[in-house]
Amino acid sequence: MSQTRPTLSEAIVKTIVTHMKARLFKSLLSLWITVFVAGCAGMTQTPPSTPSPTPVPILTPTSIPTSAPLTSSATYWPTQGWRTSTPEQQGIDSEMLARMLENIKTSLHSLLIIRHGYIVTEAYFYPFRQNDQHMLVCATKSFLSALTGIALNQGYIGDVNQRLLDFFPQRIPADNDLRKASITLGHLLANKSGLAGDDRAYFEMLQSNDWLQFALDLPMSAEPGTRFNYFTINSYLLSAVLQAKIDQGVEAFAQKNLLEPLGISDAYWGTDPDGRLIPTDLQLSTRDMAKLGYLYLHQGVWDGQQIVPAEWVAASTQAQPGTGRYGYQWWVWPFGYAAEGGWEQCIFVIPEQDMMVVSTGGLIGSMCADTALLIASDIIPAATSPEPLPENLQAAARLESLSEQLGQPPAPQPVPPLPATASALAGKTFLLEENALGWQAFALEFQEPEAQLTLLFNDQPQKLTIGLDNVCRITAVEQVAALYYGITLRGPVALKGVWQDETTFSATAQFLNGNVLGLRFSFDQDNVTVRVIDLLRVGFAPDQNISGMLQK
Questions:
Q1: pLDDT digit string (tens) for 477-499?
Q2: Same domain (yes/no): 300, 389
Q3: What are phi and psi of 516, to 5 degrees?
């Protein structure tokens, strides 16, 4: 999924120059200044200004020289859970991290800093919590890339130069464009397939009757290998290839070969109607997200087992020719590389610091620029030594206190007087017309300082509590809506609401997996209109206006 974003400003570049080792930065400065920063779901991609004039050969992973796996820092493996320490024990200045949290002005949902394998800072921004799964959006693609490397290593796929259409001999694309026959796995991995479109086409695919045929029928805009176009359908086609070649199914393959070895037992990965993994719908806790980064930090090794080939890790995390700074479903930065998803879903790996920074968020119009700026201006400068520093217990305690404060709810406010409509709704159910969310009916009842919203979804009533005192109420639910713009609306949801006037009640539904919807119920005697506003995909996802009527 993609978004137009400006390149980082010269001021940010200057910050990075100041705080990073000169020898690393000099080799990447020209790349950094000229590269664009692409995005994820619900946004518009921007192709590079100058496409390559001739096809660029796709790098075969086995040709990459790699260094020995980094294992010296792995005094334990976090399969069963991460260990924590003070920042000073890992060579980081607690005072500098505390100042960062004091001054943080961002829409992050969580922030996790790990060095030498130990969590040194962990913050969750209310109402988000440590163990809740969060949507990864396009950061899902880096997990899909890892699965591709594993499948190559196990012989399910020959190499990245295999042609896409050879995996689907029974499928015939709608057009006769001969260029399509030249698309390889490497082109898909590097987003250089030549397929035309942006992520509006991806969302159209999600609503089609045959996702794979829709993708194969897309027109071509360039010769494969000649132009970088950040396009999620490329990643979906990778998933389709894996599903076509792996008899046990790619979902079971992912569980057995990637998630289980890392100790990731609480994961949700949405699939299409034919069982292919959706490249935007992996949902994990922030701590489990970090495990992929730790695996790659150690060149694909986990507790003595080579999970992902080291050669694949190297090929995936270096910029492929003609992409600017994109590898095989990973983004490359001057200080390392990252799995990136829209709205600040990030797994940053910083090898020279033996460090990872993981974040989730809801920053509209962003990918991972805010997290990258924190890394460059605050986190890397705080890592003043590779060895332990003298303890600073006062600063460490302040850092921990600040982290805890960020997770606390605001003070409740007095509930405004309820209109007569609120009491008139008691015991009434409204039937809804067919809609994209799959909601069939609802009922609303008010008892200060809360309201109870009962939604009928898949013939099952879901009871949700709404705070009327400006404090969210969190309700644990499994799923309350259909697949929505590539992400399943599931998991706990935090709601608060207010009457705008005598007949209009508005609520904000913050799903703890990261999605957030605005709900507006407008009552007119026995009729109602429910307006659903996607507060993340502003200007992209159209509002849903759902009509309903009182059940007699």
A1: 988 888 777 778 888 999 999 99
A2: yes
A3: -145, 130
pTM exceeds 0.90, yes or no: no
- Residue 536's SS3 state is coil
pLDDT at 7: 37
Instruction: Give the distance, in angstroms, between the CA of residue 539 and the centroid of all CA atoms in the same chain.
Output: 20
Residue range 251-271, pLDDT digits in tens: 999 999 999 999 999 999 999
In the 3-class helix/strand/coil scheme, how is 60-109 assigned residue by residue? CHHHCCCCCCCCCCCCCCCCCCCEECCHHHHCCCHHHHHHHHHHCCCCEE
Domain check: are 367 and 457 in the same one?
no
Is residue 116 situated within a structural domain? yes
What is the number of residues in the chain? Answer: 552
Tokens of residue 104, six digits? 């943080």
Sign (positive or negative) of CA dihedral 321, 323, 324, 329: negative
Residue of 180, 56, 161, 143 lying closest to 347 (CA atoms): 143
Choose one of 376, 406, 436: the last residue of a domain.
406
Q: Can you tell me the distance from the alpha carbon of 432 to that of 519, in angstroms, rounded to the nearest whole number?
A: 14
Query: In this predicted structure, what is the pLDDT of residue 36?
Result: 29
* Claim to verify: residue 360 and residue 253 sit in the same structural domain: yes
Would you state the pLDDT for residue 506? 98
In the predicted structure, residue 67 carries a pLDDT above the cut 70:
no
Task: Give CA–CA dist 413/21, Å, rounded.
Answer: 49
Same domain, 319 and 460: no
What DSSP character marks residue 196?
-
Looking at residue 365, its amino acid is G
Q: Report, in angstroms and rounded to the nearest whole number, the Rg of the chain calculated over CA atoms.
A: 24
Residue 15 structural domain = 10-142+249-406
